[in-house]
Amino acid sequence: MKPPLEARDPGLSTTEHPDFVQSFARGLAVIETFDREHAAMTLSEVARRAGLTRAAARRLLLTLCELGYAESDGRLFSLRPKVLNLGFAFLHAQGIWDLAQPYLVELVERIHESCSIAVLDRRDIVYVARVPTRTRIMSINLGIGSRLPAHATSLGRVLLAALPEAELDALLADSAPLPAYTERTITDPAELKRRVAQVRRDGWCILDQELELGLRSIAVPLHGPGNRVVAALNAGLQASRFTLDAMKQKVLPEMLRTAAQISTALGARDPARAPAA
Fold first, then answer.
1. Which of 135, 131, 153 is nearest to 143 (CA)?
2. Whole-model pTM?
3. Up-side HSE of residue 148: CA atoms within 13 Å toward CB?
4. Got the DSSP string for 25-64?
């Protein structure tokens, strides 16, 4: 369950930020309560998950329904496809999908493995582009907008490595523990920081079955204007088919080649020599 709005970011205080629009923030909080496990909810469920009163949740839900972002059958509320416009507005603004898609397709054709691009949203990664293969390697379906934990993914490690040290420390200092997904998952913040530092030095990351047993992944950064890291590119592979050495020797060069192409398209000056952070 998502924490109540007031608990998510204490910095968003109307006292500290006089321009902060609380009603707008609450509306966004209501939208965020819906996910794969909570696709349709009662008014009470939405209010509880958003940390709002029933009256406030009702007003916000009815407003979303009136605007076409949500709908109700009289008991349950659910989001409508129009809500995707909010996410696609970000994707179009970034230009990542339109620019990266042809290179991503070519990479998948060369290595015959699913490839994705993601950005960082606090302790999660959010998929903004993906080209799958017919062979399914994960137990969950991934698509644009899907979220996964940054600490347990190669995409996340690369994006964490791009953060300024103070921002990374603040993120790892979060009171919420890092969940373990397999016995290999790194959950100790200090150890995770050491691993992230190694990714920063290497400029790439290989993860061995930390998110799901049988799944290995490799990720590299994507750079934009000013050579800053704007996203990360990865490939997911079956552990039974690829050793760690094979990933490094056969897949990594292809990943770096594609990352350089995409980075150039995104406006990086010299992506071949751009640092990982």
1. 131
2. 0.69
3. 26
4. HHHHHHHHT-BTTBSEE-HHHHHHHHT--HHHHHHHHHHH
| Beta strands at 205-208 and 40-41: parallel, antiparallel or unpaired | unpaired
To the nearest 10 degrees (0 to 180), the angle between helices 189-202 and 154-161 is 80
Write down the CATH superfamily of domain 87-273: GAF domain (3.30.450.40)
Q: In a 3-state reduction of DSSP, which class is residue 146?
A: coil
Residue whose structure tokens are 């952070």: 277
Number of other CB atoms surrounding residue 242 within 10 Å: 19
Topology annotation, domain 5-79: Arc Repressor Mutant, subunit A (1.10.10)
Q: Give me the count of residues in the chain.
A: 277
Our CA dihedral for 149, 153, 154, 159, rounded to 10 degrees, sits at: 10
Give the residue ranges of DSSP H helices in 19-177. Answer: 22-32, 43-50, 54-67, 84-94, 96-111, 154-161, 165-172
For the record, the structure tokens of 136 come out as 């399914």
Per-residue pLDDT 10s for the chain (277 aa) are 444 444 444 334 444 567 788 888 899 999 999 987 888 999 999 999 999 999 999 999 999 999 988 999 999 999 887 876 676 555 554 566 778 889 999 999 999 999 999 998 888 998 888 898 876 555 566 777 888 999 999 999 999 999 999 999 988 887 688 999 999 999 999 999 999 999 999 999 999 999 999 999 999 999 988 888 989 999 999 998 999 999 999 999 999 999 999 999 888 877 655 444 3
- Paired tokens of 216: 């290995």
- Which helix H or strand E contains 201, and what residues bound it? helix 189-202
**Is 268 within 8 Å of 223 (Cβ atoms)?**
yes
